[in-house]
Design goal:
Length: 137
Amino acid sequence: MLVSFSFALTLIASVTAAVIEVREPALLEKRQVLTVIMCKDLNLQPGSTGGCTSVTTANGGCYADLRLLSQDGGNWNDKVTSAAVASEVNDRSFSCYLFADLNCTGRSLRINFNEAIRDLRTRGFDDITTSVKCQYN
């Protein structure tokens, strides 16, 4: 299911947690800042199981261990139930990947620019995500 760019940016702005930045590789253009939004509940909304957060990476940067996220009580490992991808610019040439294992390894799920997966159970990836990576295709 696709979401509008403005919805994605509104969702980023509404997330109360701080944004985590991964800077690999260094000295990249601003347009290469990529964001994945993750929630512990369905429909990209805070709910009974927890809130939402976002992880921003440079092109190809890996956020290697979601246990290190401190937002919403911390430890996001194996707790992501919905996710979406957004960028500061309208550039459809990138995707983010959710990985089952540390250091962006193991089984993965690709989420394209402006795509929202409101229920990761439909993709067989509910409560599995351990690391995240975004990159230009």
